[in-house]
């Protein structure tokens, strides 16, 4: 008899237990740090994350969610809440604001977030519109490669590209070393082979960006040597003057498709309307109201459509 059969045969069934003997509901898995010593030091210096206080801080945020946003339908697992604390350098109030905005965005943009799973985006993945390069940069940052020329509007709507971007970012932040905002932090945006008109468009929108964000955009044109001052050739595919071989989209697509169950569990479950996000409760003092959030999201969506 197999080990699995032995285990099932010798374990008492739930039906055979009395009401007082029923096992307690399973607790969510506790947090286990996977950061290297160097990253722990970096997190302490840049994010104010102290390992000895980490779980205390997570519990503090969990308590705030339960008290101030009791109708917020969200995971309260250690690892999930830690994303938001890191994204806001362990400022509890700002972390809670980010968590509320995260869920409000998901509710307000159903055409992006409903049924968000890799198998629903096979056309985008196959097109090569975006992928993640296999090598990180010298700072350990992952490199997301987007190629707008691969999108053929007659094949699928632009929202499918946005869904694929979000899906990729969600997968990347499952790894602790990439967490910092989105909760994720964009360190730099390098644009190559952009048409001349793009520089004019960017000059118009740049004043509306935060200075910190605007300074992270680099327009290289056809000058790949300029790109290589920031991203070494050894980690780039030959399409961008690198020595890491041809750009291969299959490996990252396989990673996403292998995560199908995770995304189904997170984005494809039916949530009753009365339990969604904030329900009828008012947001905590200082937090953005639903109406304000919806208005701002509509504006963002308009800008995205216009840009594309």
Describe the 3D structure:
With 308 residues, the protein is mainly α. Helix content is 45%, strand content 5%. It contains 14 helices and four strands. The protein has helices at residues 3-10, 37-47, 54-68, 78-87, 92-108, 110-113, 122-127, 158-172, 196-205, 211-214, 224-228, 250-257, 260-267, 290-307; strands at residues 130-132, 144-146, 189-192, 217-221. The strands form two sheets. Strands 1-2 form a two-stranded antiparallel sheet. Helix 3 packs across helix 5 and helix 4 (78-87) packs across helix 5. The radius of gyration is 22 Å and the shape is globular. The model is unreliable at 1-27 and 272-308 (pLDDT under 50).
- The number of distinct β-strands equals 4
Task: Flag low-confidence runs.
Answer: 1-27, 272-308
The value of Rg in angstroms is 22 Å
In whole angstroms, the N-to-C terminal distance is 60 Å
Task: Name the strands of the widest sheet in spatial order.
Answer: 1-2
What order do the SSEs take from the amino end to the carboxyl end, as H and E?
A: HHHHHHHEEHEHHEHHHH
What share of the residues lie within helices? 40-55%
Please state roughly what percent of the residues sit in beta strands, choosing from under 5%, 5-15%, 15-25%, 25-35%, 35-45% or over 45%. under 5%
Task: Output the structural class.
Answer: mainly alpha
In round numbers, the mean pLDDT is 77
- Quaternary state of the chains: single chain
What is the tally of helical segments? 14
The best one-word shape is globular
Largest sheet: 2 strands, antiparallel
């Amino acid at each position: 008899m197999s080990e699995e059969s032995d285990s099932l045969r010798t374990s008492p069934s739930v039906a055979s237990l009395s009401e007082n003997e029923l096992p307690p509901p399973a607790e969510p898995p506790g947090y286990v740090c996977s950061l290297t010593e160097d990253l722990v030091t970096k997190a302490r210096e840049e994010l104010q994350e102290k390992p000895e206080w980490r779980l205390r801080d997570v519990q503090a945020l969990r308590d705030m969610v339960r008290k101030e946003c009791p109708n917020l339908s969200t995971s309260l697992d250690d690892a999930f809440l830690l994303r938001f604390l890191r994204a806001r350098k362990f400022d509890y109030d700002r972390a809670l604001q980010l968590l509320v905005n995260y869920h409000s965005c998901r509710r307000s943009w159903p055409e992006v977030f409903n049924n968000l799973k890799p198998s629903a985006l096979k056309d985008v993945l196959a097109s090569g519109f975006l992928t993640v390069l296999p090598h990180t940069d010298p700072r350990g940052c992952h490199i997301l490669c987007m190629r707008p020329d691969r999108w053929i509007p007659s094949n699928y709507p632009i929202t499918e590209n946005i869904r694929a971007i979000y899906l990729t970012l969600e997968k990347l932040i499952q790894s602790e070393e990439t967490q910092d905002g989105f909760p994720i932090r964009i360190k730099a945006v390098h644009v190559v082979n952009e048409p001349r008109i793009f520089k004019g468009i960017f000059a118009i929108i740049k004043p509306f960006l935060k200075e910190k964000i605007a300074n992270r955009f680099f327009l290289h044109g056809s000058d790949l040597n300029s790109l290589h001052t920031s991203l070494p050739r050894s980690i780039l595919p030959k399409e961008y003057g690198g020595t890491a071989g041809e750009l291969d989209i299959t490996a990252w697509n396989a990673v996403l498709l292998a995560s199908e169950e995770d995304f189904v569990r997170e984005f494809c479950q039916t949530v009753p309307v009365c339990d969604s996000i904030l329900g009828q409760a008012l947001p905590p003092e200082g937090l953005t109201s639903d109406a304000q959030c919806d208005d701002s999201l509509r504006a963002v969506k308009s800008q995205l459509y216009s840009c594309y």
